[in-house]
Amino acid sequence: MAVQKTNSMKRQPKSAARESADISKAFTSRNQSDHTVKLTVELDSRLHRELKAAAALQSVTMREIIHDAVEAELQKYKN
């Protein structure tokens, strides 16, 4: 005997407005300073060497330079 799926088992579509609201909430933390996430990027070796040298000259980490660069870039989209 075959089992038939009922309509209650199907995923119901959301309205476009509801989806966009859910998406914006998905990427917003309630307390943005409470955690960090790891991100892996690939850089060519020349760019990596320059980043490493710049970090050493400024006595900061490469992470700090990348963090500041990403923050500066994202500010363009907030205004």
Q: What can be said about this structure in brief?
A:
Residues 1-10 have a biased composition (Polar residues). The chain is mainly α and 79 residues long.
Structure description:
The protein is mainly alpha-helical. The chain has a domain at 47-79. 53% of the residues lie in helices and 0% in strands. The longest helix has 17 residues, at 62-78. The chain starts with 15 loop residues before the first helix and ends with a helix. Residues 1-33 are annotated as: Disordered. Residues 1-10 have a biased composition (Polar residues). Keywords: Plasmid.
Order of helices and strands: HHH
User: Can you tell me the residue ranges where pLDDT is under 50 for at least 5 consecutive residues?
Assistant: none
Number-wise, the strands total: 0
In which range does the helix fraction lie?
A: 40-55%
Structural class given helices, strands, pairing? mainly alpha
Beta-strand content bin: under 5%
Layout of secondary structure:
Layout: H1 16-26, H2 45-58, H3 62-78
Sum up the structure in keywords:
79 residues; mainly alpha; 53% helix
